């Protein structure tokens, strides 16, 4: 292992396959269990277990305890902990070959292969740092990436995505509700909307309370969380009133 930190949460979150009702799952054999012992085990519930053992069966952690006897892997003087979660990432953001986030007129733009390689590098770095679940807020192209990770054909942390961003603008409350329903139908895990302009433009609230109520209310009806980009006090308070999770941004960000 390149570090002394092993993230057990990867085993929990990486694969979860539903069994059709018509089939009876095969019994789990003892040989299917894998055990890890470490000098310190953080169980994710506030406890630190000395010389703890984590037992994994299939894709699930089934026990975290202290036990004697042989284990599959003894990690020695290491700390074993659940995988971490990052609730706000843009996994597709990267520097292009010109060294810039974007490109300038007259400069060569990266090709599809370079884009895919850069995104995969982000996924690898995130997973290797111990993050086993991330929430990507804004990229429409996340769906294929999310599905490939879930299918095991792409390496990366479990990915949740808003599959885009809502800019209310002049849309009516009903139009915004319909947009939320469309995103749900497309497979969005969460709804992201803007309640203010960019901090570069002063960060002032640029939506109405009715628009925010429509977005957050419909998201709740559809069983989705809603996250709001807000800078100034007015947009933050309006988002809270609408029942949204508000992500304020500081000028230093």
Features:
TIM Barrel; 253 residues; 12 strands; 3-stranded parallel sheet; alpha/beta; 2 domains
Describe the structure.
By secondary structure, this protein is α/β, with parallel strands linked by helices. The protein has two domains: 5-17 and 30-82, Urease, subunit C, domain 1 (Roll); 85-248, TIM Barrel. It has helices at 9-13, 112-128, 142-151, 173-186, 209-221, 233-241, and strands at 5-7, 33-42, 48-57, 60-65, 73-74, 79-81, 84-89, 131-136, 158-161, 190-194, 225-230, 245-248. Strands 1, 2, 3, 4, 5 and 6 form a six-stranded mixed beta sheet that branches. Helix 4 (173-186) packs parallel to helix 5 (209-221). The model is unreliable at 1-30 and 248-253 (pLDDT under 50).
Order of helices and strands: EHEEEEEEHEHEHEHEHE
Low-confidence stretches: 1-30, 248-253
User: What's the tally of helices?
Assistant: 6
The best one-word shape is globular
> In this structure, how is the largest beta sheet organized?
6 strands, mixed
* CATH fold title of the largest domain: TIM Barrel
Q: Which architecture name of the largest domain does CATH use?
A: Alpha-Beta Barrel
**What is the CATH class designation of the largest domain?**
Alpha Beta
> Which structural class is indicated by helix and strand composition?
alpha/beta
Q: What's the gyration radius in Å?
A: 22 Å
């Amino acid at each position: 292992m390149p570090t002394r930190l092993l993230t057990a949460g990867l085993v929990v979150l990486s694969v979860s396959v539903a069994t059709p009702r018509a089939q009876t799952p095969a019994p789990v054999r003892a040989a299917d269990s894998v055990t890890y012992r470490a000098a310190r085990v953080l169980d994710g519930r506030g406890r630190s277990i000395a010389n703890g053992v984590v037992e994994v069966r299939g894709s699930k952690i089934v026990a975290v305890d202290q036990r004697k006897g042989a284990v599959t892997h003894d990690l020695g003087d290491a700390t074993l902990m659940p995988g971490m979660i990052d609730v706000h990432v843009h996994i597709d953001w990267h520097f292009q070959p010109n060294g810039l986030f974007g490109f300038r007129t007259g400069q060569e733009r990266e090709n599809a292969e370079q884009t895919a390689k850069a995104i995969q590098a982000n996924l690898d770095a995130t997973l290797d740092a111990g993050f086993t679940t991330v929430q990507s807020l804004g990229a429409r192209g996340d769906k294929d990436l999310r599905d490939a990770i879930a299918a095991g054909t792409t390496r990366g942390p479990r990915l949740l995505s808003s599959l885009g961003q809502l800019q209310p603008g002049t849309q009516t409350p009903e139009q915004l509700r319909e947009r939320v329903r469309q995103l749900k139908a497309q497979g969005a895990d969460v709804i992201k909307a803007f309640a203010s302009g960019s901090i570069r433009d002063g960060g002032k609230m640029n939506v109405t309370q009715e628009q925010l109520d429509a977005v957050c209310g419909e998201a709740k009806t559809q069983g989705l969380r809603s996250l709001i980009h807000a800078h100034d006090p007015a947009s933050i308070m309006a988002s809270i009133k609408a029942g949204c999770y508000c992500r304020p941004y500081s000028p230093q960000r």
